[in-house]
């Protein structure tokens, strides 16, 4: 099949067959369907798609990877996340394994040269086209380990554990702060079943758990799932953390007193409102009668129509012109 993403269009030009190579953090692209090989990704949708066609899927942060002739790393928008993937590959694959790194120029792929030099790894440029560049190196031992990428910081009286692959890495997002500032008094959450959709580094889940809520948190990113687990543990709090697409990981009969979310609307640089739309549309089916959906979103996003259709009405709890906090109640 023909490649549709710029990075895969550049790979399509190469003479390398990529037979049995490891694909690392790849995009959704039909060209990859014709290149069998294992995949390593922290993205649930990617893992599900590759697993559906019978590929070997590594969906752990430190998997035992079988020997491969080479690997291709798709450089992410987050520069620090790309560094983590490099460290992880050096830790998981044998010395001397070929590694090609491809990415869009506006996504910072050219910085790979400095990153590899700092790690003591050589590099050569193989090609550039479609506003992308392709580099190649060989893996070897480096002085850092992947776990060094994890950081922690204090916010709202909590210790938050963060990773470069997680939304708002290393800081409290302004929208999340506005959301938490406008939630009910802490006593209203004691003993209540609450769901955090798109949990990120776990700040919402930990804030709720600290107020006595019985918390379930979900995110499609394995980095976010691990970050939330670490955040809860760092604060001696309990909660269930699941990897899943919006409500997909929950039991069919799961019902909550509240759903609270700062839902994502970006996939890399593209806007993707699909998860937030499903969050709103399907929320009544996961709430007890009288249960509330409270979410924060950029003010320009068209969520009022979705909330009106799903709940028959909603309130705006806060609006600072950049973000809005919405609340909708299941009446029936």
UniProtKB/TrEMBL annotation:
Specifically methylates the guanine in position 1207 of 16S rRNA in the 30S particle. HAMAP family: 16SrRNA_methyltr_C. The lineage of its organism: Bacteria, Pseudomonadati, Pseudomonadota, Gammaproteobacteria, Oceanospirillales. It comes from the Bacteria. It comes from Modicisalibacter ilicicola DSM 19980. Monomer. This is Ribosomal RNA small subunit methyltransferase C. PROSITE patterns: N6_MTASE. SUPFAM superfamilies: S-adenosyl-L-methionine-dependent methyltransferases. InterPro entries: DNA_methylase_N6_adenine_CS, Mtase_sm_N, rRNA_ssu_MeTfrase_C, RsmC/RlmG, SAM-dependent_MTases_sf, Small_mtfrase_dom. Belongs to the methyltransferase superfamily. RsmC family. Its EC number is 2.1.1.172. GO terms for molecular function: 16S rRNA (guanine(1207)-N(2))-methyltransferase activity; nucleic acid binding. Pfam families: MTS (PF05175), MTS_N (PF08468). Residues 158-327 form the Methyltransferase small domain. It catalyses: guanosine(1207) in 16S rRNA + S-adenosyl-L-methionine = N(2)-methylguanosine(1207) in 16S rRNA + S-adenosyl-L-homocysteine + H(+). Residues 58-139 form the Methyltransferase small N-terminal domain. One of its GO terms (cellular component) is cytoplasm. Keywords: Cytoplasm, Methyltransferase, rRNA processing, S-adenosyl-L-methionine, Transferase. Gene3D superfamilies: Vaccinia Virus protein VP39. It is found in: Cytoplasm.
